[in-house]
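MODEL INPUT / OUTPUT PAIR
PAIR INDEX: 1
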Amino acid sequence: MAVSDGDLRLLVLNMHPRVIEYARSHVATSTRRRTVVLIAANFAFFAALLAVMFYIRSGSRDWPVPFEFGSLLMVAAMAMSALCASVTMAVGANSAAQDKWDEAVRWIAIAISSWLVFLFLECVEWVRMVYLVELGPKTPFGGTYLTLTGAHWLAVIVCATWFTFAVADVKKRDILAAALYSHFLAIWWIVLVILLYLPNMNPLEDL
């Protein structure tokens, strides 16, 4: 069944107020607006670090490919942890909006646990990179890798601390604001996987 141009325009017009209302709900409070500013500042900083990595890589004659199949599994596990933390925090925010406080606490606790798993796995990957692969902070690749992932790791520490602060009093905290920051960190990790891990990976090396 074909959809006419008139029906399509009517559908767009009906969706437009809903999209605006959805966007407004995410900046409805001062905490959420400050979170948006924080996300913008983090994005600019992380993007600058990526630019530095590409600059160093362009001038390096011997750029290593240190990530193998084990790293691929590790990165996948970290991505799942980040996405789990982001989704469960959003569910917790929705529960808090419906005054389901006990349910919100449980979801936020899962989100905190997911980010803690992420932090632990990142530390394991650093140990492998520095001591087993021997690409420490004094090497061009090691320095850029540790700077990029370390900056994200510190941001995750801030996010997990924020979650802990929020779960201490879910009735008064802006849970959605914390969830927005978690969404950003999960998305940025996917960006790092695409731009940092995958181009420097040889998954068949140790098989």
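PAIR INDEX: 2
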Amino acid sequence: MLALGSASAQNQIPVWVPATSNIFAAGQSVAFSGTLPPYVSFAAGPVHAVTFGAGGKVTLGGGEPWSGPDGIHFPGGTDLSPFNGLSGIIDHRRGFFLTGVFLNDSVPSGSPPPTLNFTGAENFLTLSPELFQTFFIGNGLLNGGTTEQIFFVPGGATRLFLGISDGCVLAHSAPGCYDDNKGTYLVGLVLHPVAAAPSAEPSR
């Protein structure tokens, strides 16, 4: 049985995520497109979980529609290849969604972890991403309701980056073309100590 610590008494950490925030530039000194994504740092050690609440609107430029953090239905959806040592990300139903990635203190490089496919699987209760593995956050709520989705922090993580998944051809390309994006997501996140481990492996 999962029991989160009393993080509800803690203040949310506010993070502004401009639409130009390039999640695939996480951990780098310069963004190859757009801007470096914002991040929250924390000490490595005990297992933690993160919950989110997100709002705001962004558009990925070129007259595209505006979207909330959960993304919008978009022809072909999102299918971006790995880049800068980070995994790609897939959701063939949606585009423009809020995306995260956990890093340690190193600069990402080398072979990335597997790419996660969130097509039709956005409404998970828990998710356990690996280091350097980009993942769907959306608005952080199950089925758009009031139940918070729980994101487990991988061992060794010291930073959580927030950004947007974008590419010049969103449905199948390398990441890029962030410079014409507009708008901002406002995210409130809480870091939770885990008081008891789940009885089964967290899954999405």
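PAIR 2 NOTE: The CA atoms of residues 38 and 161 lie 6 Å apart.
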